[in-house]
Design goal:
The chain is an alpha/beta fold. It has helices at residues 16-24, 54-63, 67-70, 80-86, 89-95, 97-102, 131-136; strands spanning 8-9, 28-29, 45-49, 73-78, 107-110, 124-128. The strands form 2 sheets. The protein has a 4-stranded mixed sheet. A two-stranded parallel sheet has the order 1-2. The longest helix has 10 residues, at 54-63. The chain is globular, with a radius of gyration of 16 Å. It starts with 7 loop residues before the first strand and ends in a 29-residue tail after the last helix. 16% of the residues are buried. The mean pLDDT is 89. Belongs to the SRR1 family. Residues 5-128 form the SRR1-like domain. This is SRR1L protein.
Length: 165
């Protein structure tokens, strides 16, 4: 059981009332929009990111771009394999390069679809990054650590810091 004070939350759409209720439950709200760029440090961390934009997942991977950090990360969110299947390869690799580069080092298990909500949670998976699989990836991928910018991205689904909440 994880103590509430060890649970950090952020959603740029939280209202003041929602933020107050979460705080009253003892949950910690992140003070600013990190655009998904949250490092895990030395702790194993679960990210619940259902229905988030691809850029948030890509940013999260970038901010933890090492086998040691990624192996401490678990993501419940949209299927990375589904993203790959639905996008042209050149777009996927250009705009979401960190997702593309780590796919072979990712274990992904789809959550079962609920018959009542087939159109809502039909693409949710649990992702984790076993250290041995990450270490089998080409060493060159770990040298590329440019921060994602999304300048040419036509389908950007992220609320940027400068856009406010």
């Amino acid at each position: 059981q994880v103590p509430p004070a060890r649970c950090a939350l952020f959603d740029p759409a939280f209202s003041a009332r929602e933020a107050a209720a979460l705080g009253a439950l003892g949950l910690r709200l992140l003070p600013e929009n990190e655009e998904g760029k949250h490092g895990v440090g030395g702790s194993a961390t679960l990210f619940y990111m259902v229905h988030c934009g691809k850029a948030l997942y890509n940013n999260l991977l970038w901010s933890n771009w090492s086998p040691a950090a990624l192996s401490r990360l678990v993501i419940i969110g949209n299927s990375f394999r589904g993203m790959q299947e639905r996008l042209l390869s050149r777009i996927f690799e250009r705009d979401y390069s960190y997702i593309a580069k780590v796919l072979e080092g990712t274990e992904e298990v789809a959550l079962p679809a609920h018959p009542r909500y087939l159109d809502t949670f039909n693409d949710t998976s649990v992702h984790w990054f076993p250290l041995d699989r990450l270490q089998e990836l080409s060493p060159e991928i770990w040298h590329s650590v440019e921060e994602p910018t999304y300048q040419d991205c036509e389908d950007l689904e992220i609320i940027r810091k400068e856009d406010g909440a």
